[in-house]
Amino acid sequence: MREQISVDKAIKRGHLIVNVPVFIAIIGCPALALYLSEQNLIPGWGIGIAFLIGFVLAWLIWSFMITKWRVWAFENVRNVHELKKRAIQEKLIWNDGNIFEKTEIRNTDDKRKLKDLEKKFEQEDEYREDYSLPPKIEIHFSKAYIYFELGISVLIIGVGIYLFTIGEKKQYILGAIMAVIGIYSTIKQYRKAFNNKPQIIIDSKGIQTKNVEFRDWSNIELEEVVQEGYGKSSKSYLIYFYDEEEFEKIEIDSLNVTHRELENILRTYRIRHNKNYS
């Protein structure tokens, strides 16, 4: 029987065989052109051409290698739903139907294999209980995150005061705006720093958040941790539906739990509930 590869291992391999060559192509072509230009081997405008070549080459590499990774990953990973979700979140692949997904290079054999692998998506993912987790988990604001944000806020205030004291009209206005923003952010983070109440409580009976009173697992569905946005502006949220039509969406970036940790917590306590109350 073939050994199943973990989702984490598949994602790491995807970055290695797809994103690393793409990065090398994008950076390498202009870097090589810059070197050749400094050696007077090519004209200066060749650097601009190299940027274009690097982009096209990188896209071709991605289009070819991502298909090879798809086939390998979906063949060897059991939890294909989680794998696909993670791959989209980590910018390895695009959402179904996205115009960029259509640029993937797939030969006849690739298409046949991917078509056959669609059957795996008819099965639900399987997870194991994490026995290291306690009977109940309380999730609070992250002190490290708050202190970091406080530092940024104080820095903004400092820059604002500096610009404010220069005396010129433009700097005066900009300084005042920055100082106000910094003070507002400082007050906001200061309140969080002294807020010791749990923002999320999860156990084998259900979930409670700062916004929604306790709900039993039997009244909760489609619980998941999602990431919205791209790059540094992306944010992670705990989302779940309850009482049929209601839903909760709470940001977790400022809490003392990571995206992956919260996913594991949700799965474990859902499993415990099913074992105890099924």
Automatic annotation (TrEMBL):
Domain of life: Bacteria
Transmembrane segments: 16-36, 42-62, 144-165, 171-187
Assigned keywords, A-Z: Membrane, Transmembrane, Transmembrane helix
Record protein name field: Uncharacterized protein
